[in-house]
Amino acid sequence: MTTPPTLPRTRQQLILAVLLLSSLLIWLDNSILTTTFETLADPVRGLGASPAQLQWATGSYTLVFATLMFGAGALGDRFGHRTVLATGMVVFGGSSLWAAYATDAGQLIAGRAAMGLGSALIMPAAMAVLMWTFTGPARATAIGISSASAGVGIAAGPLLSGLLLDRFWWGSVFLINLPVVVLALIGITVLVPNFRSPTRRPLDPAGLLLSVSGLASLAYGLIRAGQVASWTPVGVWLPIAAGVALLATFVLVELRTRQPSFDPRLLGRRMFGGGNAALGMLLFAMTSASFYGAFYLQGARGFSPLQAGLAFSPAAFGSIVGAPLGVRLSRRWSLRSVTASALATAGLAMGSLMFFGLDTPLFWNEIMYLVQGLSIGMVIGPVTAALMSTLPLERAGAGSAVTNTVRQTGSLLGIAVGGTIMSIVYRRAIEPALEDTPGPLREQARISAEQARHAAAAAHEPALAHAADNAFIHAMHVSAAWTMLIALTGAVLLVIALRPDRKPVEPVPDDVLEPAAR
Predict the structure, then answer these.
(1) What angle do CA 440, 441, 447 make, to 5 degrees?
(2) How far apart are CA 185 and CA 89, in angstroms?
(3) For labelling, which of 56, 198, 366, 429 has a CA lying 20 to 30 Å from the CA of 390?
(4) The pLDDT of residue 25
(5) What span, in angstroms and rounded, lies between the C-alpha atoms of 250 and 248?
(6) For residue 444, what are the contacts with CB-CB under 8 A and spacing of at least 6?
(7) What is the DSSP letter of 176?
(8) Strands (E), 195-340
């Protein structure tokens, strides 16, 4: 099939609805564990997972998602994008069932990795179907709407998780995926033609192997640093160095490939490369802030999962409102000034946690999350739509692969680095309080604040729980400062990336920005 058939408008809209359902499911699962961390760390209500295991429960999903997604597009060219999309949905649904009934942290991590495989098959196939279904301004509109769904999904995940955990056991956060998968499969089967590219892209086994091993080694070294509370052991810096070397080799291999699955050349374009780097840093900061924010609300403050989810809900509301607001403000001023300012505001909101403590009124949490969600919504949809509009149609698939891979890599590193900084600072902060603590109790308290609280309750040592809370708050303050710096760096990159050329620059067309408003 060289020319896509012209589908009726109603069918196009129904296909877009199915694709949005698929995209929303993926982005929800990126953040739905946020409010589940505290429960999973509980040895009674959850799996007794350590901080490193919780990092891998999230990291395994994003690792597989990030590294396999850009190669999955070639499968769609060979077997049809509807076939790959449906297969991804089946894999996602089956692995959700596996994760829901995991009996230990290892099984949960494996189930999450399998869910990442399903997402890696879904995302490029959904984008390809979108590109074949729509043409002209309608295509730009559909791309923008799909991009905006990412912010909504990420922000709404913690609220949905809190609602489920308030009534059911922790596995329900994965079982909720099954009815959505079934509904999406019905829509895919009935509505979506099996589009297939006339030119088959070759599979890229070398690139896949190098990217998976490189990111896995890098993430392992970063998370290992948190386990041993040091950056100097060989078991920490050697995997990090090996990961960086493997990823550098991966880039060189892709540059020498005639039809690379991941095209690093696109990142050489100032607007596309710099804009994606800024979005990657935003995702880095978001996932890191979500990681310690969940432990702050449920562990240090003692909120229930539902209360924590409701505390996060202003972020979801702000993200929904922020996308159309960003569009309207960009028409009045410019995409550069609006989105860079919004990203800087998001970073400052994340950094405001440096001033939060055990007795901070919840009202300030709500304000902080509202501002954060509003700012993030003003960035993700409009910037993604504008970046994709800079590429010719024949590079749209490659551009989508690069954009989504950078985002997922940012999420993976946010969890790995953010969690590791928290672990190292917490251990150093609590050490003085453990000098006179018995050996077994001391070792358990060193693992995490959650483990320290459980051990203190069992041993009737309230002073130890209080010390763990204070150590956690200190660690959160340090992490919030780093998170803010990462987000502010992303804002600077966005200012550079969206800098107008010397010749007069036309305003970003409405058919590029309008999707986020819709």
Answers:
(1) 95
(2) 7
(3) 198
(4) 82
(5) 5
(6) 451, 452, 454, 455
(7) T
(8) none
d(CA 422, CA 134): 45
Which pLDDT band holds residue 334 (cuts at 50, 70, 90)? Answer: confident
Please state, as a whole number, how many other Cβ atoms lie within 10 Å of the Cβ of residue 463: 10
Instruction: DSSP letter for 97, please.
Output: H
Cα distances (angstroms) measured from residue 320 to each of 141, 316, 372, 373, 451: 17, 6, 12, 8, 36
The closest alpha carbon to 274, from 368, 393, 402, belongs to 402
CA–CA gap between residue 251 and residue 336 (Å, rounded):
29
The residue ranking higher by pLDDT, 252 or 5, is 252
- The secondary structure element, H or E, covering residue 163 is helix 136-165
Which residues have C-beta within 8 Å of that of residue 235, sequence separation ≥ 6? Answer: 221, 224, 228
d(CA 465, CA 456): 6
Residue range 379-420, pLDDT digits in tens: 887 887 788 777 765 566 567 677 777 887 888 888 888 888
Which one has a higher pLDDT value, 198 or 498? 498
Report yes or no: 123 and 143 within 8 Å, Cβ to Cβ: no
- Rounded CA gap, 264 and 402, in Å? 8
| DSSP string across 52-73 | HHHHHHHHHHHHHHHHHHHHHH
Count of alpha carbons within 13 angstroms of residue 382, beta-carbon side? 35
- Please count the residues of the chain: 518
In whole angstroms, give the CA distance from residue 404 to residue 408: 6
Output the CA torsion 403→405→407→409 (10° steps): -150
The answer to whether residues 147 and 515 touch, using CB atoms and an 8 Å cutoff, is yes
Distances (CA, A) of 251 to 62, 265, 401: 19, 10, 14
Supply 237's token pair. Answer: 């810096």
Confidence of residue 245 (pLDDT cuts 50, 70, 90): very high
Q: Convert the pLDDT of each residue in 141-154 to its tens digit.
A: 777 677 666 656 76
Q: What is the pTM of this model?
A: 0.78
Task: Give residue 505's pLDDT.
Answer: 42
User: CA 74, CA 81: separation in Å to the nearest integer?
Assistant: 9
How does pLDDT run across 386-395, given as a tens digit for each residue?
A: 887 777 655 6
HSE-CB for 185 with a 13 A CA cutoff: 14
